[in-house]
Design brief:
Elements: H1 7-14, E1 21-26, E2 28-41, E3 48-61, H2 62-71, E4 75-82, H3 86-97, E5 105-107, E6 115-121, E7 126-132, H4 140-152, E8 159-163, H5 172-185, E9 189-192, E10 206-207, H6 211-218, H7 225-239, E11 243-247, E12 253-259, E13 262-269, H8 282-295, H9 300-314, H10 325-333
Parallel strand pairs: 1-4, 1-8, 2-6, 4-5, 8-9, 9-10, 10-11
Antiparallel strand pairs: 2-3, 6-7, 11-12, 12-13
Helix pairs in contact: 1-10, 2-8, 4-5, 6-7, 8-9, 9-10
Length: 334
């Protein structure tokens, strides 16, 4: 099955975005770009000399997911951890500039705000990356505080999105409290996963591994759509989630939708990208669009198809990028 959602249906769903609210829980970070020209190799070591021209800072990780949801016009509650440093101040200021508050962020004295500094050329070629971070799980007290802030915002959420980058926020105890509370309220929980936390996601509505992570989690290879179908079923069994969306780069996506313990939809969705500049953050765009689409009343397969179009727009841009409703509608109509 290869579904195709109509432009009229996408517009109908997108028209509801502004009235929806998504609760996002996960690892917030900053993406810091130092951009310059390379004209020579250093005489000190066989490395390029980058002549600095400018720098830019963008929201990354769960904060980029929040930015993606906000770019569609929807409301966001963001819960995560920052340090007590200048990067935390920058992150809060970036959120405020986009109309998002930082009340859900918990400050920690013993870990830095995650920042990924990339040195890139003016031709968008990455030279090096420096990570400022702690990837240890947050302690019990901090995990409890994060869960409290998430649950305090749950009743007004139309969907919950967990963005796991293995930077310590997504613990077993937090996920257990979050999925249990969301289930009582019949609020869907979507997870952008990391495989070491696979068992944390039990009870989630949808988990969205890329094909590399799906292969790792299942010890199976994906070479054909039939492979993707088998891997999706095995991934679902091992994770204990309800449904699975495998993102597969230029091959598109594979959706396994289950309800009440049975498969109700299995669909291959072809890639929609016309031009690929940078795949950084594409997974953020996919899950943000999935969560918002489901929150706006789309079926899971409709939301997956819409997110496929959104990803196609995102990868045509450099760095972690967002997509607007107008760009989405243009992609669907082209």
């Amino acid at each position: 099955m290869t579904p195709a959602v109509s432009a009229a249906r996408v517009r109908e769903i997108a028209d509801r975005f502004a009235a929806r609210r998504v609760l996002i829980v996960g690892d917030v970070m900053l993406d810091h770009f130092l951009v310059g020209r390379v004209n020579r190799i250093s005489p000190e070591a066989p490395v390029p000399v980058v002549e600095f021209e400018h720098e830019s800072i963008r929201l990354g990780g769960a904060a980029n997911v929040a930015h993606n949801v906000r770019a569609f016009g929807a409301h966001v509650d963001l819960v995560g951890v920052v340090g007590t440093d200048g990067s935390a101040d920058t992150l809060r200021a970036e959120l405020a500039s986009l109309g998002m508050d930082a009340d859900g962020l918990v400050a920690s004295d013993d870990r830095p705000t995650t920042r990924k500094m990339r040195i890139v050329t003016t031709r968008n070629q990455q030279v090096a990356r420096v990570d400022f971070e702690s990837d240890a799980d947050v302690g019990d007290a901090l995990s409890s505080a994060l869960a409290d802030r998430a649950l305090a915002r749950l009743d007004r959420a139309d969907a919950v999105l967990v963005s796991d980058y293995l930077k310590g926020v997504v613990t077993a105890s937090l996920m257990s409290r979050l999925t249990a509370a969301a289930a009582v309220r019949r609020i869907p929980v979507l997870v952008d996963p990391k495989i070491p936390h696979l068992l944390h996601y039990r009870g989630a509505t949808l988990v969205t591994p890329n094909h590399h992570d799906a292969e790792t989690a299942t010890a199976m290879r994906i070479r054909t759509t039939e492979d993707a179908r088998r891997v999706a079923h095995e991934f679902q069994r091992r994770a204990g989630c309800e449904s699975v969306l495998i993102t597969w780069g230029e091959h598109g996506m594979w959706l396994l939708e289950r309800r009440d313990g049975a498969a109700v939809c299995e669909a291959a969705l072809p890639a929609r990208a016309h031009e690929v500049s940078d795949v950084t953050g594409a997974g953020d765009t996919v899950i943000a669009t999935m969560a918002l689409g489901i929150a706006a009343g789309a079926s899971m397969v409709e939301a997956a198809e819409i997110s496929n179009y959104a990803a196609g727009v995102s990868v045509a841009k450099f760095g972690p990028a967002t997509v607007t409703v107008d760009e989405l509608l243009s992609a669907v109509s082209s």
